[in-house]
Design goal:
Elements (H helix, E strand, L loop, with lengths): L1 H21 L4 H9 L7 H32 L28 H31 L5 H28 L9 H9 L9 H9 L3 H13 L5 H11 L2 H10 L1 H6 L5 H31 L5 H27 L10 E7 L5 E6 L7 E6 L9 H18 L5 E7 L21 H20 L7 E7 L1 H12 L7 E5 L16 E5 L12 H4 L32 E2 L1 E2 L11 H5 L7 H10 L29 E2 L7
Parallel strand pairs: 3-4, 3-5, 5-6, 6-7, 7-8
Antiparallel strand pairs: 1-2, 2-4, 9-10
Length: about 625
């Protein structure tokens, strides 16, 4: 009997030796991934794919051995299937977290994959010979070789990506989003097919690029901007320029493209569009002058009016950009522009990619591109105050008019466009979330950056919805000014570290949060009587109510008429030298100890008298972390 199984036992020994030499071929790759805490993009799926391939490798050797053991037993021998599987390698990073690219480690990891790609097909051939000698299935040998082929493909792809990343000017300062997608982007989940669209765009397909912009404006994919950032950085410079030349507005609107590039593309688009409009206007005016009335002249005059309106929008953007680079401010960057309809734009005073603190302001009712000058001036004043508050902090202050704001004249006719409806805020939340994704993706590490989003009036509703769609990833803090609500029941629902509320007691818009309780009447304002139950207004809990749980800061009172209200209060939060502007500068730069905060009143018992209205300043804040 022993002689009949001798050949089988020798084949089993050969399989066990091959397994001992090659079963851990992918272990070093997993140790590198675990030890250096790679994050973002396709890093986690790449690790999982490597684990899966390791499992297939081990199962292939185990199956090969089991087949031979089964033959030995069938011939009366006494053999036990060996345990060839080994524990999954786990290593804890010695670092405090992800902090740039360790070129040496990545180079070694790629080399290890190349070695596995070389050794495993050879091991598969030897395994096939061992299995063939005893007439059992060669499938396990084919599986071993297939794992080697996988390793070869990954090594080639990662080496190419690593080479591109090493050529970047910021070198080891490459951010986590770029590394995650740049190195392991091929493994990133892509349910909407954006990867294919970006690949097509890289080859000059501007229709695909338009679809990417449309996808980002839905705000559904929080990883899209990081994917775009990695794609853009790894794109050939000539291909980048071709896209900019072909569709500057699309490139300028693309979250994940560096701010300086977006600014250059958008300015180029404005210049081109301005030149085209002036030429068209000259032709249309000449045609209109030679006509003597009639429907055609009326149509020409209508076209002239539309083009003149577009020119006014361009002029408003140019005037806003001119506010940068003066009075000590950094140059302004144009991060987005859309001349259609009411118009959209995003203008930054300072480069958000290099700032220590980035504040994005979202304006409210009545905002239009033609009137963006006032909103841009507020963003400029925020930069001024923040710089004054902390001169050593590099600040970028952005005005983001990237949504269709409700207009007071339209609210009477269309319910969904009404200032009392959340519909336009819901439509604007996706673009805002995507814009913030882009700021995070392109930011170049400068210590620990601070991201603030400031929502004013209806803009706070947009901000609240966007924050809830990105809990823990949207921003570090929110500032809500004259807010009628955020569609949240309490501040903790917004998913940010700190929520600050500034509200004048003379601000009528802010009292919309009590609409359901009093029709917005001033006597039961959450500011004047902050412990009273909060009425169900159109946008959820009034942020000024103590029960909402926000941090409250002082706002100077505004003279009001017999109603107790003043529209000036709603727009006066940025008044130069005001308490509110001073406090916002401290909040934006993280100087929380200098914020003039309102104390939290004790909860009133049923026996306590109703407090009398106070003419002194009101608003909100317990210190962060309280």
């Amino acid at each position: 009997m022993a002689g009949e199984t001798t050949g089988l036992e020798e084949a089993l020994s050969r399989v066990v030796r091959l397994a001992g030499d090659h079963i851990g071929a992918l272990d070093s790759t997993l140790r590198h991934m675990a030890a250096h805490a790679w994050v973002g993009g396709g890093a986690a799926p790449f690790t999982q794919a490597t684990q899966d391939q390791r499992t297939r490798l081990q199962r292939a050797f185990e199956t090969a051995a089991a087949q031979i053991v089964e033959r030995i037993r069938a011939q009366g021998g006494n053999a036990t299937a060996p345990s060839l599987a080994t524990a999954l390698p786990v290593s804890t990073s010695t670092r405090g977290g992800f902090s740039g690219m360790d070129v040496g480690v990545m180079t070694r990891m790629v080399a290890d994959l190349e070695r596995a790609g070389h050794d495993l097909p050879a091991a598969g051939s030897r395994l096939s010979a061992a299995l063939g000698s005893v007439c059992v299935s060669p499938v396990p040998a084919q599986q071993v070789a297939a794992v080697g082929t996988w390793a070869t493909g990954q090594a080639a792809d990662l080496r190419r990506r690593l080479t591109v990343l090493q050529q970047r000017p910021d070198g080891a300062l490459a951010n986590a989003a770029l590394l995650g997608f740049g190195l392991f982007g091929g493994f990133a989940p892509d349910p909407d097919g954006v990867g294919g669209l970006l690949a097509a765009a890289a080859n000059g397909d501007t229709a695909a690029l338009k679809k990417v912009v449309e996808a980002q404006n839905t705000g559904k994919d929080p990883t899209l901007a990081a994917r775009v950032h990695a794609w853009w950085q790894m794109l050939d410079p000539a291909a980048r320029q071709r896209l900019i030349d072909a569709e500057p507005r699309l490139v300028g609107s693309l979250n994940g493209v560096p701010a300086a590039t977006r600014d250059s593309a958008n300015r180029a688009y404005l210049g081109m569009r301005k030149s085209v409009i002036n030429k068209q206007l000259a032709e249309l005016r000449e045609m209109a002058e030679n006509m003597k009335g009639g429907a055609r002249q009326t149509q020409l005059l209508f076209e002239i009016d539309a083009l003149e309106e577009e020119l006014r929008k361009i002029a408003a953007v140019e005037r806003s950009l001119a506010m940068g680079g003066i009075e000590g401010r950094p140059p302004a960057l144009l991060l987005q522009v859309d001349l259609a309809g009411l118009g959209k734009a995003a203008i930054s005073f300072g480069d958000p990619d290099k700032a220590d603190s980035v504040v994005t302001s979202v304006p409210g009712t009545g905002s239009t591109l033609e009137g963006i000058g006032g909103d841009a001036n507020r963003a400029a004043m925020l930069w001024d105050q923040s710089n004054s508050s902390s001169p050593d902090t590099k600040v970028a202050s952005i005005i983001w008019l990237g949504y269709k704001a409700p207009q007071l004249d339209a609210s009477v006719l269309w319910a969904d466009s009404s200032v009392a409806s959340p519909k336009l805020a819901e439509d604007g939340a996706g673009p805002l979330a995507g814009f913030l994704d882009g700021l995070h993706a392109t930011h170049q590490p400068t210590g620990t950056p601070r991201f603030t989003v400031l929502g004013h009036s209806y803009g706070s509703v947009v901000t609240g919805i966007a924050a809830q769609s990105r809990k823990g990833r949207f921003a570090d803090q929110l500032i809500l000014l004259g807010s009628p609500g955020t569609m949240a029941a309490k501040a903790s629902d917004l998913g940010v570290k700190h929520v600050w509320v500034g509200e004048s007691p003379q601000d009528p818009i802010a009292d919309l949060g009590h609409l359901g309780m009093s029709g917005g009447r001033h006597p039961i304002s959450g500011i004047l009587h902050p412990w009273l139950p909060n009425g169900e207004g159109p946008f959820g809990t009034d942020p000024s109510n103590i029960a909402f749980g926000a941090n409250r800061f002082v706002v100077d009172p505004t003279p009001a008429g017999w109603t107790g209200y003043s529209l000036d209060a709603h727009s006066g939060y940025w008044a130069r030298g005001s308490s509110s502007l001073l406090n916002m500068g401290h909040i934006i730069t993280g100087r929380y100890q200098d914020v003039d905060k309102l104390p939290t009143p004790r909860s009133r018992s049923a026996q306590d008298p109703v407090p009398r209205s106070s003419p002194t300043s009101q608003s909100s804040s317990t210190s962060p972390g309280d």
